[in-house]
Amino acid sequence: MWARRITVDQRRWLSEPDFADIVGLCQFMPGPNVVGIAVCTGAKLRGGIGAIAALCGFIVIPWSVGLALGAILLEYGQLPIVRNILGGVSAVAAGLLIAAGLRLFVPHRRRPVAVVFGSLAFILMAFTKLPLLAVLFGLVPLSIAASGIEKARVG
Amino acid sequence: MSDHSALVALSAHLALVSSISFGGFPTVLPDVRNFVVVIHGWATDQEFTNFFAMVQTIPGPSMILMMSFVGLKVAGFPGAVASAFATFGPPCSIYFAAYRVWDRFRHAPWQEIVRRGLVPVTLGLVVASGTVMARAADAGWQAGAITVIAAVLALRTRMSPLWMLLAGGVLGGLGLL
Prior knowledge:
The complex is a heterodimer.
Chain A: H1 2-10, H2 16-27, H3 33-75, H4 80-105, H5 112-127, H6 132-154
Helix pairs in contact in A: 2-3, 5-6
Chain B: H1 3-19, H2 29-39, H3 45-57, H4 62-105, H5 109-137, H6 141-156, H7 161-173
């Protein structure tokens, strides 16, 4: 994970526990995690200005380059060869996304509560047309309540 | 719908879903696809999966870029900029605010319970995103097989995702999918 290498090992902006702390926070917040790590690191170093600076470095430049490249690619998006290549890439990327979700689920696999709510979230989002808002607000409070009961039982 | 009102509707929707994208932005892909492709018809499934594939091949913040391409399609360059802001603005403000108060509750016992309840749900959503994107491509069984193989390789080996994406692109380019 290069974010850790840069912030902790190379530049020594953060100590190891500080970094772990920030990652812990970012993992259960909405949004792109890596951007969150950048914002929090910036905030830690220089407050609000730091957070904005981190955001610019992290988004503005790569975004401009990416958008320009993408716009060029889109020009050719209707060519069969480009469409086929993108189709192959998309199939792999979908597989990688599935794998990422499953891998992170491994530590939870022996918790019936986690399996039930993870599966419900999967089924509702993959096979119904329910909006994300409905799925999240329907499942998350129940899931948290069940986790609380689970914790009380296990002790 | 005119470009302008489409742009406002898209940005508002992206701002809403990005605020609730617990577990990372990929969790919102099925919702955004439904909004953009099924409800409004601003882009086809083909275009939506093209955007998804494209951002894997170019450097940069992939989900912000992907939403920018959706914005670009809906309302040109202003659409791209507005979509980018709608995608990262709300979560970043939330991050910043949360970071300020995190000290107070980081050791609270309920924090662990909230996490244990929230994380499995978000992981189910991530897997659902992959499934929806694979189905949206609506290609033949070969593409489905590639999705499954990529998932298995990613879980069972330490092969770099870049090689897999490259292999997928080559197979697709050769017209095998």
